Structures are given as structure tokens and as C-alpha cells.
Amino acid sequence: MSVRVVARIRPLLEKELDKDIIVHAASTEDGKPSTLVKIPSPKNGAEEFTFAFNSVYDQQTSQEELFTAEVAPHLKSLFQGLDVTLFAYGVTGTGKTHTMRGGMKLAERGVIPRLLSGVFRRSKKIAKDTNGATTVTVALSYYEIYNDKVFDLLEPPEKRTPTGLPLREANGKTHVVGLSERPCEDLKDFEKLYIESNLNRVTASTKLNAHSSRSHAILRVKVTQVTEEGVLESTASAIDLAGSEDNRRTDNGKERLVESAAINKSLFVLSQCIDAISRGDRRIPFRESKMTRILSLGQNNGITVMILNLAPLRSYHLDTLSSLNVSSRAKRIEVREIENEIVYKQVPRTNPGNVSGVPRQPLRP
Ligand code: ADP
Ligand code: MG
After folding, report:
1. Which of 24, 69, 239, 242 has minimal Cβ neighbours within 10 Å of its Cβ?
2. Residue nearest to atom 16 of ligand 1 (CA)
3. Ligand 1: distance of its center to the CA of 95 in Å?
4. 24 beta partners
5. Which string of b and e fits 213-237 if b means at least 16 CB within 10 Å?
6. Measured from the CB, is residue 110 less than 6 Å from ligand 1?
7. How many helices, marked H, and strands, marked E, lie in the chain?
8. CA of 328 to the centre of ligand 1 (A)
9. Which ipTM did the prediction report?
10. pLDDT tens digits along 50-98
């Protein structure tokens, strides 16, 4: 299993209708989904570059179609104990937040509320099918990485410490130390929490005279299944990355430069990790930014979907090319699909380090 990398081209906004479209999904024979993105060379308009992805979604793709094709199939795996990571990558204004969060109207809802809706639906079904023998609980964490510092979005901005929260590695995963977690019973619960914490994000960034497109936002959905047998925990993470544009080109204020350096650095490290993994290097520079430590691409056990968001406009030309370059290489990353194990209620006392003899089958609802 490798990282699945898909591209999504957004439609033109009303104010852009007279603008030049330069990014296209290559057309395919009768109805087959496209896998190629075409874009002209910036130096020679007659020459065209082609980038290959696992799938390419054109301007007409609805939120529901994207979710059904790219996220819904992984819900089953999540409940079987696999961790699922979904992240949106791309230049500011290309539709990352639209893809992940989406609009308020039902049809416009993005990947995140649909994911939660699917998780709750499945949880209820499991409880019903097992006559309540299996209980499923869902808990949320939500945080952002801004200037390489981690801030809890479930807490009000006043409670932030200037240094942010530290990271720690345990059991092959990176954890945020002191991150809060809230139980979430249903979609209503989730929406309330999500709206509140997104307001925290806006308030915090306004205080700093920053913009939310400059931080990485990470939502973590922890699913815990408890049966007679034991406890199985798995997580789905949905990540709205900071804009991948070259901020040095657009900003010149002093704070902006610090900020841009941090954004550019974490996204630059991400692209270096992608390159190193796709080349098969032994040393992957994960540790060089908090975002890449958390993402630990190719290191985490589970399923990863990278969504490259694209605006088809000429004004994005160079940044679009650079994001196409980075993400099309990410396709070659191998992800080990290892299920989280049930933590058994009774571990043999005589030899705590050895649980052999205890069946290690993951739960299969
Ligand atoms: P980003 O988070 O990458 O900066 P946004 O998600 O804020 O970009 O999108 C920029 C603008 O484009 C927003 O007004 C958004 O509503 C609109 N938009 C993006 N993708 C789509 C889409 N698939 N369909 C309709 N509008 C879209
Ligand atoms: Mg955004």
C-alpha cells in the first residue's frame, strides 16, 4: 500500500469567470476517471507538462463524490484498527479548507463532517449488531501548528503558552503532550465543538495579526471499541495544511518573514521527506519540523490520502507547478498497513512482556 495521492481542480469563482484556465484534467475514454493533470510550461506556452496521480477530480466534482470515492472506503479499515490520515496540500485559495471543512449547507459539507457522520453511523450499527456487547466511543482533539509551535484549538487562545505544546514519540507514533481530548456523542456534538474551536483559531490568529492559511490545522478523531475481549483504538486524522505558495514572493513585513520561513520550512521539509522516501533513502528528515514529525509520512501504520488542491488559473502558475511537482512524487511512498492491536484486558501476569498464547486478532465488526 502506498500513499494515495489525488488531485482536485476547483471551479472558477464568480469573480474569476473571465480569467484564463491553464490547468486541465486529461480527458479519458468513456467515463473513466482521469489520472493526469496537464499544465503549460511557464517558459514556452506551446509545451505542456503532464503529472500523474491516482485520481484526478475536475471542477465539476461534488463534495459527496470526492468523499464517496476517497474517504468512505477507509471507514471500514478504521474500525478494523488502522489509522487513517487525510491531508490537503496546495496553494492558498485552491480549496483545501473547502475540501476538508466545506460550507455550512448540507451538500457543501467537506470531508471532515462527512467523516464524522460516517464514524457515528458505523458506531451505532456496531452497537446494534452486537446487542450492545461492543461499545464505541469517539473523542476529538484539534490543534494547529503555527511557526513550528503546537497550539490546542479546543482551549481558548488566552490559555496558550508562548512555546506551545511539546511532542513526544511513543510506540512508533508522535504524540502531542498535554493535548486535550473531548468525547463526542453525535454529529451535533461534533459540530458545536468544531465551530467553537475554529473560532478559537481565528481569534488566536487575529491577535497575532496572522491568517489561518498560515498554520496547519490537525483534527484527530479517536475511535475506541470496547468488547468483552479488550479494547481497540484507532485514529483518523484530517489535516488542512498551510498554503504551499512561496511566501517570500508575496510578503515583506518582518513578522511575515519569520512566519513565512516557518511555513516554507515545514512544507520544504515535507517535500524533502517525500523525495527521500520515494528515492528509497534510509535517512528521512522527519524530525526537522513538527508538522512532518506528526505526519510521519510512510512511517505511520495505516492509510494515507493526500489531496492536492489546484486552482486552474494562470495567476497561480508557478506555485501550481511546484505543488504538482511535490505531490506527484509522494505517490511512491510506501505505507505499512499494520493494524493497531487490541489491548487485552488480562495480560498474563507471569511474563508481562510476552502475550503469546493470547490471540492477537484485531476486532472485525
Ligand atoms: P484554501 O483553504 O486552499 O486557501 P479555500 O478552501 O478557502 O482555499 O477556497 C478558496 C475559495 O474557493 C473559497 O471561496 C471556496 O469556497 C472556493 N472553492 C474552493 N473549492 C471549491 C469547490 N470545489 N467548489 C466551489 N467553490 C470552491
Ligand atoms: Mg484554507
Report:
1. 69
2. 98
3. 4
4. 38
5. bbbbbbbbbbbbbbbebbebbbbbb
6. no
7. 9, 14
8. 21
9. 0.99
10. 999 999 999 999 999 999 999 999 999 999 999 999 999 999 999 999 9
